[in-house]
Amino acid sequence: MSRFAGFPHGKLRYTPLPDLFFSELLPQVDSLAELKVTLHVFWLLYHKQGNLRYVTLGELQGDGALMRGLSGLSESPELALREGLQRAVARGTLLHMASAGVDGEHFYFANSVQGRQGVERVQSGEVRLTPSGVLNEAIGLEERPNIFVLYEQNIGLLQPLIAEELKDAEAEFPAEWIEEAFRIAVEQNVRNWKYIRRILERWRTEGKGNGKDEARERTWYTQEESRKFIRR
User: Fold this and answer.
1) How many domains does the chain fold into?
2) How far is the C-alpha of 103 from the C-alpha of 109, rounded, in Å?
3) Domain co-membership, 104 together with 43
4) Nearest CA to 148 among 132, 164, 135, 136?
5) Span 124-179, pLDDT tens digits
């Protein structure tokens, strides 16, 4: 057995899990393959971008770390992977969709609010999943830039520490709020992420208001407060 050297000093990236995972789901899992696959899928989903997040069977099959971890749990890592996925879907941890055809791709979503909404968007025809795993928007739908694009277009070069904050915000706030908060920051000439984040947090606690005109007319912070954001 190889020995883990321990977590290094300094800031580490992390993957959050709901408390219900430990209190309700984990006691039910009786397969090591299912546990490893479930945790790995959650890790991949958390580090995806956008509001619709999923992983494909092909993506998992090509993941060396996962397949090495499944070695020895069945006749082959491939069989262990399929067993783990089937158990996770049957338990209700993951949601499964398959494309048409014998060689069609398989798509897996977390059984969360965000995951269920993603499946509903596919089933309604709003979005389309292709065998290659590429998400195609249905004809006529407006393509929205993700939060990283908004940041680089309106603030500047994306730094790793800010990228983590942006990823969390994208999962926490609606895309429409984020876009509008960026627009307000540009109009107020305060191109600063902390300023934008504060707008989003205020909308969440105080209510967003009745429309974009009201949001633009509002004076969010004094000039002195705005200078504090810029200095930070």
Assistant:
1) 2
2) 20
3) yes
4) 164
5) 888 877 655 444 444 333 445 578 888 888 888 777 778 888 888 988 888 889 99
